[in-house]
Amino acid sequence: MQILPLFSKHKVVHFNKTDARLANNGISLDLQRLRCRVNFQALKFTPQIEALGNKLVHLLRDKGPFMALHLRYEMDMYAFPWWREKEIVSEERRSQGLCPLTPEETSLVLQALGFDKDMQITSDQHLLMLAVLSSLKVKIVMENVKKFHLHLEGVCKNDPRTILLLCQVKKEILLDPKELQQFHNHSSQMAALDFMVSIASNTFIPTYDGNMAKLVEGHRRYLGFKRTVLLDRKKLVVLLDLYQNGTVTQNDFEVSVRLAHEKKMGQPSHRRVIVDKPKEEDYFYANPLECLCEQRDCDDLLGLGKRNSSEVSS
Q1: Of which family is this protein a member (predicted)?
Q2: What 3-state DSSP class applies to 176?
Q3: CA–CA separation, 78 vs 106, rounded Å?
Q4: For strand 164-169 and strand 136-139, is the pairing parallel, antiparallel, or unpaired?
Q5: How far apart are CA 208 and CA 200, in angstroms?
Q6: For the chain, which residues make up each domain, given as ranges?
Q7: CA distances from residue 89 to 72, 96, 103, 166, 210 in whole angstroms, order as listed
Q8: pLDDT in tens, 111-146
């Protein structure tokens, strides 16, 4: 009775202990599930964003299955995380899996995972980035952008590293410029469109696990463990180097990449807990396990039911 009057007056109520920065774990089951209902069901974008986002999704689905590629290969990914350090050993950072994959590395991994030219890929990158995807021969499937299509083909044909033909689509190409006019200079609103498309995609692949990637991952789990490929950058950089220097064959490279990601497809998994180090443990909204199963069913969901039964019987 104390909450309802406040909600009626202010329309928005902030519940304590619901912010991920405060706690991922050690919270009652009821409160954890409330967080899920608020984040994954109650919160909505503005009607304008919802309408345009839904239109984007319909346009993509009309063309067939599509993948959302969160290609975080941007200057800020390098500048801000390590700005306190005057000297950065790039090779060391990369070997630790702390760098997003380059466009060329990404294309090699996509090919190894079995994505072919018939799969649409929607990216959140700018048009300039599409033009410099050195190892992707980009084909835009929309008829009204033939000039852009030809420009990209010319760029790719001149690059000897071009190895893969993929359909890559952007919201700026799918939509009329007038429809996006209201969102210009509003990066968060543009990101909201990317978020909606990422949630709806058949497959979501982030090349770097930032905040948006984690939110999309968790939302897709909540919707029934939709396919989300969580790239193991630490393993991948080793495999990529071995392949690119000729140490391993393409077939061995592809087999190794697939084996490394068998259990990284967004399927049910435990959330990693690190006591007293909340920033290093798994993000609650990326894997809200408490909201995805009843207590007695969690072991079965995680594939632990049979193992536990055999342990008891033995």
Answers
A1: Belongs to the glycosyltransferase GT106 family.
A2: coil
A3: 17
A4: parallel
A5: 19
A6: 1-43+268-314, 45-267
A7: 20, 11, 21, 34, 21
A8: 899 876 666 666 655 333 333 332 333 333 333 233
